[in-house]
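wait is this the right file?? whatever heres the structure
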């Protein structure tokens, strides 16, 4: 059941919910109404105010979305970098031990074998550094894509086309 409609004073600007409620009332077309220049001016001002409100709401919503997406991207990047840094640290520790073992090897064949292990570990470490660098570039690419998306959203064109004008008379 609808709540009783509170009547606004003549010429008052109605908000969205009040306007929607007017469409719930029974009505009929009596004749074409012509808005006076004063009413037309008041309607234009109300439309401009509402347009500015909508633009502000969209800007706020887009700003929150952007902040959330950047936070998610930053957290993902930090997690990725942390994982790769741990891997690098582990490889560095293993490499340090392998170098020490190579130096302390008692025979030349053992030293050669240990040096091959060192070279293999160095290659793995270099690959880990490439992964780290690639992950950083991927984060930058995703940030650029997000910035492009925001730029695209800011280029929105707002068009306005009057569809009809209603004049209500409540009895």
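ok assuming it is, sequence goes like this
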């Amino acid at each position: 059941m609808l709540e009783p409609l509170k009547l606004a004073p003549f010429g008052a600007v109605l908000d969205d919910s009040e306007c929607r409620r007017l469409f719930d009332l029974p009505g009929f077309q009596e004749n074409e109404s012509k808005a006076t220049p004063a009413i037309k001016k008041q309607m234009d001002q109300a439309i401009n105010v509402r347009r500015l409100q909508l633009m502000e709401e969209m800007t706020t919503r887009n700003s929150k979305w952007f902040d959330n997406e950047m936070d998610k991207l930053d957290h993902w990047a930090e997690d990725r970098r942390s994982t790769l840094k741990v891997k690098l640290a582990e490889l560095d520790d293993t490499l340090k031990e392998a170098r020490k073992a190579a130096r302390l090897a008692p025979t030349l064949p053992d030293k050669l074998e240990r040096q091959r292990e060192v070279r293999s570990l160095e290659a793995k470490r270099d690959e880990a550094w490439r992964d780290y660098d690639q992950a950083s570039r991927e984060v930058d690419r995703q940030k650029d894509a997000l910035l492009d998306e925001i730029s695209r959203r800011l280029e929105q064109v707002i068009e306005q086309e009057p569809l009809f004008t209603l004049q209500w008379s409540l009895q």
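Helices lie at 16-22, 37-104, 108-154. so i think its the right one actually
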